[in-house]
Amino acid sequence: MSEFKLGVIGGMGPYATAKFMENITLHTKADKDQDHLDMVVLNHCKMPDRTQTIESGDSTLLLSHFKEALSILEFAKVDHIAIPCNTSHYYYDDIQSMTDIPIINMIDETIKKIADETPAAKIVVMGTDGTVKSGVYDKYAKKRGLYSVPLDSKQQKIVMDTIYNMKNNKVIFSQEFNQLIDWFIYKNIKVILACTELSSLEIPTGLKERTVDAMDVLMKESVSRCKKEWVEF
């Protein structure tokens, strides 16, 4: 079987990138070092804030950073690229146009998973203000016949506070956020963890297994495209 190399544009944030690498390593079926997936990981922490970029309407600086990162991955001859950052996927088409290397579309893959498993489902997107206000998930959801339920301003503040407490202070548990998830699950609405910081939280198993974690989807798709086997445990 041909071997494939994964390129990762990370650093958005750094802890989420570390968890991305850790979980791919833990869940790839391997009996020895050589069985694991080859990865070239750019922990690009100087990447401009994605939410601020979307709100400013000027993506020039952000896209120049992506162009630089893509040049490095092209030189490294990777076969696929993963970007473990939901908000940056607002610029997916712009970023993909800069390279011939296929970039895994985390948002499209996440929506596809839900649509395949639960057609016509209601979803709620828990992500940054940039992800939510840009409507990037809504665009893909509409294409696949899903209905997106908006968060109110108080609920969105809980999500943003949780994300930035994780990003800045490494606070990995939020009772208020867990209660918010539980409320939407009770309403039979699919909860999408649409920020890689949220993927790193400690969420009770009974809640976590009933959400759809976009980073989990990206990790599994990355392993699959590189012809490796994902193992659950």
Structural notes for this entry:
Helix content is 50%, strand content 12%. It is α/β, with parallel strands linked by helices and 233 residues long. The protein folds into 2 domains: 6-105 and 217-226, Rossmann fold, CATH 3.40.50; 107-214, 3-Layer(aba) Sandwich (Rossmann fold). A 4-stranded parallel sheet has the order 5-4-6-7, with helices on both faces. Helix 5 packs across helix 7 (136-143) and helix 5 (106-117) crosses helix 12 (214-225). It is globular and about 45 Å long.
Q: How many domain units?
A: 2
Beta-strand content: 5-15%
Q: Oligomer, anyone?
A: single chain
- Note the overall shape: globular
CATH class of the largest domain: Alpha Beta
Distance N terminus to C terminus?
Answer: 25 Å
What is the residue-averaged pLDDT? 95
How does the major sheet shape up?
4 strands, parallel
Order of helices and strands: EHEHHEHHEHHEHHEHHEH
Strand order of the largest sheet: 5-4-6-7
- Gyration radius (Cα, Å) is 17 Å
